[in-house]
Amino acid sequence: MKYKWVVLTVTTVGVLMAGVDSRILIVGLPQVAYALKADAEQAVWFTQAYLLASTITLLLIGRLTDLVGRVKIYNVGFAIFTVGSALASMATSPTQLIIFRAIQGFGSAFLITNSVAIITDATPKEELGLSLGINQIAFRFGAMAGLTLSGLVLSVLDWRALFYINIPIGIFGTWWAHRRLKEISHAERGASFDFLGFAIFTVFLSSLLLALTFSAYGIAEYPAVFGFVLSASATLVLFILHERRTKHPILDPKLFKIRKFVGGIVSLALNATAFGGVMLLLSLYLQIVKGLNVFDSGVRLLPFELAFLIAGPVSGRLSDKFGQRKFMILGLTLTSISLFLLSSIGINTPSHYVVTQMIILGAGIGMFSSPNMSYIMGSVPEERRGVASAVRAIFFNVGFTISLNLAVLVMSATIPYPLVSSIISSIDAVPLQFSEKVLFSQALGHTLFCMCMLNAAAIITSLI
Questions:
Q1: How far is CA 41 from the centre of its chain?
Q2: For residue 59, what pLDDT is reported?
Q3: Considering only CA atoms, which of 457, 241, 259 is closest in space to residue 339?
Q4: Which one, of 406, 390, 167, 173, lies nearest residue 280 by Cα?
Q5: Architecture of domain 2-181+250-463
Q6: What's the predicted TM-score (pTM) here?
Q7: Which of 35, 38, 215, 410 ranks highest by number of CB atoms within 10 Å?
Q8: Residue 405 to residue 226: CA distance in whole angstroms
């Protein structure tokens, strides 16, 4: 029982760092892009490189944790993430920052996959929702700090200081994890690693995520999108055939025969698609339409994080007693309502209306997240928790990637793509006219409505 709290302490440091970095560029993305003379496509890759590197390597790391042990892999991840943060702070070009963000993403995959699995191993099933809820508090607190810190840092320091934040946390976390964590999971003995399966899966997932990313760049990139879609389709079929025939598959097909597992990850992916781009969109709305600076924009986004901070552990604790699914559905319902109401915001929308909807949105996502994580992880055998945690994170990251690109696509259907590009990459450099602000508000509304519909679909998958 005492070790459960040791695990929570150590993994909290890891997810805190990951939380800070997940939000640190949202408010200041246009300013960083302007400083490095990056265009909109490169600016998108500042966030996408992190997600792509993290997502592609999740299954590899998940399988390795089941074979080698979770603690060893977790410790390595801390060190890689810290090095990636230090390198990102020294980038002198958009290409360098993209590469260094990818290194950060690679390190984060170690932390994301293993923190959930380590907690699940060390926590009694009847207390799992509460423990995962506490873990999520750390992530959201980091995310909340990332929003405010980015605005504060950019107000008084150079953008490079955004990445300095992770360095002392990472050094302490690496040392603390090495000192305190011990291996209690049972590694799968005698099993070989499926290198061919991982290679095929890497090509599939890379092709899928690249297709989603390039689809947001406009008509000129459609031939590349078509090629990536063909590659993703072919390698997916090949991967399924290979995994069904190999003795020790990297992704056990039997997991997808567990109804709770499948329902949980599909609902998670739809929810991530629905809310992944919302914070960036609202940050742009506050800066472009409302005329706030980066620090004030970050502060105005805090109600979302505070609501999540409160709802997450409460929902996790209650779901341990009364069942996860009803809280998942309630959280998804609140999220859909808030996204629908946010789709009506415009130039003259009162600030208190936006704040109210952000509170509802944060509460809804917080109410869904902890029970959903407990629902997924509690449905799989102990020896498959590493891979199951990786699959859960993959579905989340793919949904998050889709969300960012969906936002650009839908907005481009309402306003010209060059205007979307200038908004994302250079807010301060290209002041918008009143008519352009009106168009941006309309495009924002259409995008949020689409996200509302996607989140509503997650309610159906949870019910089924």
A1: 19
A2: 76
A3: 457
A4: 406
A5: Up-down Bundle (1.20)
A6: 0.75
A7: 38
A8: 16
